[in-house]
Amino acid sequence: MIELKNVSKWYGKFQALKNCSVSIQKGEVVVFCGPSGSGKSTLIKTINGLEPYQEGEIYFKTHQISANGGDMNLLRTRIGMVFQHFELFPHLTVLENLTIAQEKVLGRSKSEATEKAQTLLKRVGLQAHAEKHPGQLSGGQQQRVAIARALCMDPEVMLFDEPTSALDPEMVNEVLDVMIELAREGMTMLCVTHEMGFARQVADKVVFMDAGAIVEQSDKKDFFTQPKSERARDFLEKIL
Ligand code: ADP
Ligand code: MG
C-alpha cells in the first residue's frame, strides 16, 4: 500500500531523513516512535506529499508521491491525515468541517456529504455536537472530529502524527479507542505515537527512528522484549 525506498530529505543543509526504507501492506498498523527531532513528522509529511524529498522513491500503491506532482491533490484525498493540534476550521461548525472537503474536493452533493458526516459523527460519539464550533469542544472531542473528518473522504490509508500528545491525560483514551476500532476494522494506519499501550494492542509493526534514520523495524513483540539497538533500549526505558 505504501512503500518508501531509500528516501532522503534535507531542510537546507540539514539532513532530516537518511536513506529510509519501509513497506506497509494493506490493513497493517505501523507505529513510528523515536526521540523528539528524529524525523517522524517529516517522514509522515513526505508520505502525504506535504514535504518534498530529494532522494529515493515513495509509492502509494502504483502512484509515486512527490510534493510537486500534478495528481497529488487527488492522491491526498486517498490518504487521511490527523495532526497533533487537530487543525479544524475554527469558524465552521463541526458538521461544516466534515462536509466542506467532501463537497469541494470530491464533488459530493450537500445532502450526500451531510449524511456521510452524520454517520461518522455518530461513529465517534459526537452526533449531538454537529452544530457547535470546534472551540466549544474539549481537545479529545476536537481530535475525534478531526478523525471523523478524515474518514469522510473514504481514505485508503490513515496517517496520524502524535494524535494524543496535545490532550489532557483523561482524554487520551477516547481518541485511542476510536483508533483501535479503526485498526480492528482493517484500516491501513501509520501512527506516530508514544502510546505504547496502543502499539501493544494493535500494531503489526513498530518502526524506531533516530537522527533521521530508521534504526529498526520489528514485530511489536520483538521490539518490546528484545529491541536490537541500544538507542531503542534507552528510548523504551524512558517512556515505559
Ligand atoms: P520528530 O517529529 O521526530 O520530532 P521532525 O520530523 O519534526 O521530528 O524533525 C526532524 C528534524 O528536522 C528536527 O531536527 C527538526 O528541527 C528539523 N526540522 C523539522 N521541520 C523543519 C523545517 N521546516 N525546517 C528546518 N528544519 C526542520
Ligand atoms: Mg513530530
UniProtKB/TrEMBL annotation:
It is found in: Cell membrane. Pfam families: ABC_tran. One of its GO terms (molecular function) is ATP hydrolysis activity. It is a peripheral membrane protein. The keyword Repeat does not apply. Keywords: Amino-acid transport, ATP-binding, Cell membrane, Membrane, Nucleotide-binding, Transport. Residues 2-236 form the ABC transporter domain. Gene3D superfamilies: P-loop containing nucleotide triphosphate hydrolases. InterPro entries: AAA+_ATPase (IPR003593), ABC_ATPase_HisP-typ (IPR030679), ABC_transporter-like_ATP-bd (IPR003439), ABC_transporter-like_CS (IPR017871), MetN_ABC_transporter-like (IPR050086), P-loop_NTPase (IPR027417). The keyword Calcium does not apply. GO terms for cellular component: plasma membrane. Belongs to the ABC transporter superfamily. This is Arginine ABC transporter ATP-binding protein. It comes from Advenella kashmirensis W13003. The lineage of its organism: Bacteria, Pseudomonadati, Pseudomonadota, Betaproteobacteria, Burkholderiales. The gene is artP.
